[in-house]
Amino acid sequence: MAEIEKRPVKIVETVLRDAHQSLLATRMSTEQMLPIIEKMDKVGYHAVECWGGATFDASLRFLKEDPWERLRKLRDGFKNTKLQMLFRGQNILGYNHYADDVVEYFVQKSISNGIDIIRIFDCLNDIRNLETAVKATNKEKGHAQIALCYTLGDAYTLDYWKDIAKRIEDMGADSLCIKDMAGLLTPYKAAELVQALKEGTSLPIDLHTHYTSGVASMTYLKAVEAGCEIIDCAISPLALGTSQPATEVMVETFRGTPYDTGYDQTLLAEIADYFQPVRDEALKSGLLNPKVLGVNIKTLQYQVPGGMLSNLVSQLKEAGQEDKYRQVLEEIPRVRKDFGEPPLVTPSSQIVGTQAVLNVIMGERYKMVPKESKKIMLGEFGQTVKPFNPEVQKKIIGDETPITCRPADLLKPQLPQFEKECAQWKQQEEDVLSYALFPAVAKEFFQYREAQQTKVDGAAADKESKAYPV
Ligand code: CO
């Protein structure tokens, strides 16, 4: 028998970004990360995902930490490992479309502060919304990975994926990621999908999924056999549930096969030992809810990401209408269809979810319409794969004319204005970007930072005056 060619599978470790975003409400602090990164740096991971997504907002808002400072510290510690971030296309890390000058500057600063790989996605898979970020990453000599949001529906045929993969390659991506945020991709479907993508593109393929529905590690196995090169995993204490499959399990699964990662299990065990108390404490404090650790088969049934389900429950609770849960779950696919069948991922998941809740509790569909629903219908988030339901669109936007161009084409440069607004707090060039994304939260953080510095300076001056009495 001919010897099979060795093709070690590459692993992206997500514990410093997606895993704690999915399980710990993104509350892991830089302090909690730093003591273990020297060991993590020795594993030989393809990359460590450690920045972007919700980490930026959570650092400023809840942890009162400068996210840029975190990135520089991680860069300092990871001497051999590539650092990866998640970037929401023209939304950057926020929820609105930003002008190109802000997107370009954010990419430039992310890379100059230490990021190697930028994973860029758009919630509608409208690739026009990825262009600016991809070009900027190319220009800064970073690795531009384009992520396609995986979803199900009439429009999402194998030909759709094959075609869009080709267009992504033409756009200048260095690799392609299938981002299965809800854990909808089942093992045999994954093999089919990877094969189709391989026909459309020669880019390396990275598969990102969540364990939510319980199939994820089998999905990785079939995807790797079909030619997928990179998989995203989390070290075991922060794996499974709404997080990723466990790193050690996948490493062991491929041992002695052509896909053997060659990673050292003893080293991985030491890393797991470090994170075990983080898990234990989070379970004790209630930060980690045991509910999210089990198999949630409803995600397969309703094709709704786990995070979105918990949002729905709290929205209904607020309205005192928890008994409408099932009706809302049934309304979601209908709203999604009316809205051109988009993938359900931030921010489209919130928009569709909120609209479904309103449709049910108002007792009339589209009687109450939040401004984000209107923005989608006006084309202001971009183009959906399928057309909108024309009747619903008419009811929502009336006589207004929807746009068909790339939404950011209508935005004038924004940096000068942001610079002006945050000038009084600015201590580093990157501050304007924190401010651009989260103005109120950043302002509060800047004020907190100043107060801390005054306190420290005051204490130092105090000490000095005691040591050297005048
Ligand atoms: Co994810």
UniProtKB/TrEMBL annotation:
CDD domains registered for this protein in UniProt: DRE_TIM_PC_TC_5S
Any Gene Ontology CC annotation: cytoplasm
Source organism superkingdom: Bacteria
Ranges of residues in domain Pyruvate carboxyltransferase: 9-269
An example molecular function term from Gene Ontology annotations: pyruvate carboxylase activity
Coiled coil residues, start to end: none
GO terms (BP aspect): gluconeogenesis
Name under which the protein is recorded: Oxaloacetate decarboxylase subunit alpha
Organism: Clostridium porci
